[in-house]
Design goal:
Length: about 160
């Protein structure tokens, strides 16, 4: 499994990229994503995430996490053709590091927990989970809680 992590060069983050990679690996393994998969994770500035939110979602405000799926079936479309390299290209998760700091403080929990919550949320979107309808929202929320428990249980 290939997990490509890019940290905005203007940021100094308080977690190791290896920790983020380990969280992503646990989530993807729990979702039965095999070794022939690839995902990108970008830790970005608030301004960059706001720009992406505006450009791709027509919402001109900051947000905490964005997911850009590379899979047609995650968007509700049938797959066009399988990738020639045999690798399941999932897409990218982009997390606003400043927003994660704000939310960790607001919720009174460690930054690592907030980053795990955002990473889980973003990865589930890449895997086709959604929260637009109340039943789908409940299903996604329940899975997020299960995965967070797995992450927190594994880090003790």
């Amino acid at each position: 499994m290939e997990i490509n992590i890019l940290v905005d060069e203007t940021l100094e983050i308080a977690v190791e990229p290896a920790w983020l990679e380990a969280v992503a690996r646990r989530v993807l393994a729990a979702e039965n994503i095999g070794a022939k998969a690839e995902v990108g994770l970008v830790i970005a500035s608030q301004e960059r995430v706001r720009q992406l939110n505006r450009d791709y979602r027509d919402i001109d405000e900051p947000t905490d996490v964005l997911s850009f799926s590379a899979r047609e079936e995650a968007a509700g479309l049938p797959p066009f053709i399988p990738p020639p390299d045999g690798v399941l290209h999932l897409g990218e998760v982009i997390i606003s590091y400043p927003q994660a700091l704000i939310q960790a403080e607001e919720h009174g929990h460690p930054l690592q927990k907030e980053l795990a919550i955002l990473l889980i949320h973003g990865l589930l979107h890449l895997l086709g989970y959604d929260h637009e309808k109340s039943d789908a929202k409940r299903k996604m929320r329940a899975r997020e809680e299960e995965l967070l428990g797995l992450i927190e249980g594994g880090s003790k």
